[in-house]
């Protein structure tokens, strides 16, 4: 008998389940196929799975009985063909299981919360005091429904069981929007409610469509509450647009802001992109445009073209919370055709946005790296802004780089991809120089203002004049001048907290984290010590635990310290700190930037967050307090990152009419990175850096992979790394690709969260043959190994 068989991948993160299992698709679920999420019986449990392929087969000859798919999770295929292909690439390139890659496309790790069954051990109840509740419940035996469980267990036990073993009912209900058993294909459009939009929100949308942009007060008169307006904005735009006078102003479809007349350079770039969009084929571009050359406008015009052609566009930005200006500009032009995807959204918001993308209602998607995992309809353009930015790389498995995955997507979707930057990564610029991607350049700022003048301040000749060692006399006088002229300044220091090291002045004891091999950072505002690695907090010690001395030195100044020093030297200046600590609250980053734009304070200082693409009028001065602290990071990318950060940060100054000024403080004024950055000479920097990369065999001349073993027991990590090392040495001679590996080495911070980390760095012209050899080798199936392809 011919039957329809599905190959199903089980959604369980096990390296041993990296294969599919066959299930029968029953008649009632005929519509289901590749990409659908389903529920199946697997190893006597209900598990969620994903259908990866479907075929017809004569099952009468089979010696065993195939199980049926029990139900379907959604009323549509969650995965498109392109999404599955992207996931396949991620799993094969980054060496993770397919389910790890596919889960990136989920809103939640599991779509169906499988109800855990529980039962009671009556014998135990009779013999032991009820206090030992945990021992009474066995999660694996029979299942009971809530009501009968409550009858059997009594209230207290039931509460315990609920908290520990049962998923909340509402979550379950939300996961099964359509009852699983009664699954049917909907033959009608989804109602607003099903789309997750309330009736009132729909009314508001209609009202705005009919009447255009409205002040909030008017909407309130009409009976729309502030909460509703806020929810609506989040729903429609992914964020509420915050404007002057502390009111929310609504931006409707028509848009309030006018698009701009393009400069000649912009025009050329836009034309090249639009032509490419028309060709419906993969093509790679690098848009290399100096800071302030108007790259955003190029992206916008190209996205508009994709939209007019009935397609969609994806625009990736490194940190969307910091790009409020760009997002509100796009929202003002495209209205509800644009959605924002980022980690700051709730699951509900993300789910709604995803549905808008899938239905084609919102074909323009702006987001951080995870925005690549959306069900794009007819994707015609991908933009990766600030392509060199390290936040595109995910720090946990799967350790993918959003920029590189986006390149593969462009091939899969047959569309152009634009990598944009003022200072492209060496690898990307090399690809452009080799003709692998097309180069578009914009050399002039929109307002023709020259790039800011960068003064290198040699701290050996101009020693810092403050107690923290952060601020030199030339910097102070430039800041004084800035304030006097009623302009604004930005200061960058790449260290959070008040002091990065506390040391006892009598015995030299350094206060270290008990779990990690790092010193604790003193945070003055919270008045406590924090570990930036394991995130534990500790009270400020009154005395040294070793010698009981009470004079404790605060070394290594961080951002909090700048505040104090500025207050001493520039008592009249209004200053605000901008770092992870001061922006934890939702929207606080946006509020600080808005206040700065509106002139509510004069100096914005903080970590590299201050350097991102902000376009704030009146910023004439930029101070980079310690260029050396970035140069010293232990990575082959240190030089590139320093050059980029200096350029990026300097690029905030003098963007409109008047040339800006930058002071770059360093103890290494003759370092080639500092020299090139000071002259804004990307080409020389590139040439020099490329020479080093070639000499030392780093990307783009080699590919890298880092294999890391970790363990509570240092010896175990060592011996595991030794086993991997000898395995590598035994296979490397028969691999193609000129593969080499280092001996095992301890990470710069050897112990984090009480785990020891030992790594091996692998290099090669190509790592494909090595990856193939590693796959299926038991050594790499163990869980205490991290494989990082293209590590940073
Ligand atoms: P980049 O990202 O290249 O550093 P932006 O895209 O932020 O530069 O643009 C810099 C400034 O120039 C912004 O304030 C933008 O609104 C403005 N701008 C861009 N293009 C034009 C144009 N064609 N005409 C007028 N202003 C423009
Ligand atoms: Zn720690």
TrEMBL record:
Protein name from the UniProt record: Replication restart protein PriA
Residues that coordinate or bind Zn(2+) 2: 513, 516, 531, 534
NCBIfam families: priA
Helicase ATP-binding domain location: 276-442
Source species: Dialister succinatiphilus YIT 11850
Reactions that this protein is recorded to catalyse: Couples ATP hydrolysis with the unwinding of duplex DNA by translocating in the 3'-5' direction; ATP + H2O = ADP + phosphate + H(+)
E.C. number: 5.6.2.4
Keyword Cell inner membrane recorded: no
GO biological process: DNA recombination; DNA replication initiation; DNA replication, synthesis of primer; double-strand break repair
UniProt xrefs under Pfam families: DEAD (PF00270), Helicase_C (PF00271), PriA_3primeBD (PF17764), PriA_C (PF18074), Zn_ribbon_PriA (PF18319)
GO cellular component: primosome complex
GO terms, molecular function: 3'-5' DNA helicase activity; ATP binding; ATP hydrolysis activity; DNA binding; zinc ion binding
Known partners and oligomeric status: Component of the replication restart primosome.
Cofactor annotation: Zn(2+)
Co-factor remark: Binds 2 zinc ions per subunit.
């Amino acid at each position: 008998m011919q039957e329809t068989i599905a190959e199903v991948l089980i959604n369980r993160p096990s390296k041993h389940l990296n294969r599919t299992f066959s299930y029968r698709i029953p008649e009632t679920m005929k519509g289901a196929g590749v990409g659908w999420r389903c529920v199946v019986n697997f190893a006597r449990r209900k598990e969620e799975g994903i259908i990866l392929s479907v075929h017809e087969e004569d099952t009468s000859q089979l010696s065993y009985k195939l199980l049926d798919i029990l139900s379907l999770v959604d009323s549509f295929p969650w995965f498109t063909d392109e999404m599955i292909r992207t996931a396949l690439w991620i799993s094969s390139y980054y060496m993770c299981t397919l389910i790890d890659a596919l889960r990136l496309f989920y809103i939640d790790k599991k779509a169906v919360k499988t109800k855990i069954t529980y039962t009671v051990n009556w014998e135990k109840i009779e013999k032991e005091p009820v206090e030992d509740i945990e021992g009474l419940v066995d999660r694996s035996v029979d299942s009971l429904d809530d009501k009968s469980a409550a009858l059997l267990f009594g209230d207290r036990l039931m509460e315990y069981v609920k908290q520990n073993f049962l998923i909340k009912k509402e979550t379950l209900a939300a996961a099964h929007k359509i009852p699983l058993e009664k699954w049917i294909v909907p033959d009608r459009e989804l109602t607003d409610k099903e789309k997750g939009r309330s009736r009132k929100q729909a009314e508001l949308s209609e009202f705005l469509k009919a009447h255009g942009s409205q002040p909030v007060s008017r909407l309130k008169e009409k009976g729309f509450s502030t909460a509703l307006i806020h929810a609506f904005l989040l729903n429609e735009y992914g964020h509420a647009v915050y404007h002057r006078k502390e009111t929310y102003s609504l931006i409707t479809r028509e848009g309030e802001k006018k698009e701009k007349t393009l400069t000649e350079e912009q025009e050329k770039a836009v034309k090249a992109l639009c032509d490419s969009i028309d060709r419906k084929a993969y093509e790679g571009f690098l848009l290399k445009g100096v800071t302030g050359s108007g790259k955003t406008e190029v992206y916008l015009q190209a996205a508009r073209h994709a939209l007019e052609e009935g397609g969609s566009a994806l625009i990736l930005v490194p940190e969307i919370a910091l790009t409020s200006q760009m997002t509100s500009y796009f929202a003002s032009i495209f209205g509800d055709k644009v959605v924002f995807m980022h980690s700051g959204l709730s699951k509900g918001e993300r789910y709604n946005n995803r549905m808008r993308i899938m239905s084609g209602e919102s074909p323009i998607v702006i987001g951080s790296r995870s925005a690549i995992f959306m069900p794009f309809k007819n994707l015609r353009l991908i933009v990766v802004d600030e392509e060199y930015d390290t936040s595109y790389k995910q720090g946990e498995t799967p350790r993918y780089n959003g920029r590189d995955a986006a390149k593969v997507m462009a091939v899969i979707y047959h569309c152009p991809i634009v990598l944009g930057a003022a200072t492209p990564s060496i690898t990307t610029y090399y690809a452009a120089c080799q003709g692998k991607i097309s180069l578009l350049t914009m050399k002039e700022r929109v307002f023709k203002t020259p790039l800011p003048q960068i003064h290198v301040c040699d701290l050996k000749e101009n020693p810092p004049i403050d107690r923290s060692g952060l601020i030199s006399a030339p910097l102070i006088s430039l800041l004084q001048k800035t304030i006097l002229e009623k302009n604004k300044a930005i200061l960058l220091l790449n260290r959070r907290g008040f002091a990065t090291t506390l040391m006892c002045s009598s015995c030299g004891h350094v206060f270290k984290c008990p779990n990690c091999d790092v010193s604790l950072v003193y945070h003055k505002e919270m008045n406590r010590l924090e570990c930036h690695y394991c995130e534990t907090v500790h009270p400020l010690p009154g005395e040294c635990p070793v010698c009981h001395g009470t004079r404790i030195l605060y070394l290594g100044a961080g951002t909090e310290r700048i505040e104090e020093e500025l207050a001493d030297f520039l008592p009249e200046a209004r200053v605000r700190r901008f770092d992870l600590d001061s922006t934890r609250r939702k929207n606080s980053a946006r509020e600080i930037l808005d206040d700065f734009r509106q002139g509510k304070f004069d100096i914005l200082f903080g970590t590299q967050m201050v350097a991102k693409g902000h376009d704030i009028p009146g910023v004439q001065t930029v101070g980079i307090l310690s260029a050396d602290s970035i140069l010293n990071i232990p990575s082959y990318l240190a030089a590139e990152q320093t050059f980029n950060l200096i350029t990026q940060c300097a690029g905030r100054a003098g963007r409109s009419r008047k040339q800006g000024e930058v002071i770059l403080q360093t103890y290494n004024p003759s370092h080639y990175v500092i020299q090139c950055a000071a002259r804004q000479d990307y080409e020389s920097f590139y040439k020099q850096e490329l020479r080093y990369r070639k000499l030392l065999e780093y990307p783009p001349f080699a590919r890298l992979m880092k294999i890391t073993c970790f363990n509570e027991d240092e010896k175990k990590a060592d011996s595991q790394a030794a086993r991997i090392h000898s395995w590598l040495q035994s296979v490397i001679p028969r691999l193609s690709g000129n593969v080499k590996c280092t001996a095992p080495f301890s990470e710069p911070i050897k112990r984090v969260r009480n785990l020891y980390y030992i790594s091996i760095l692998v290099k090669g012209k190509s790592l494909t043959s090595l990856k193939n050899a590693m796959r299926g080798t038991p050594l790499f199936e163990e869980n205490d190994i991290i494989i990082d392809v293209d590590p940073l």
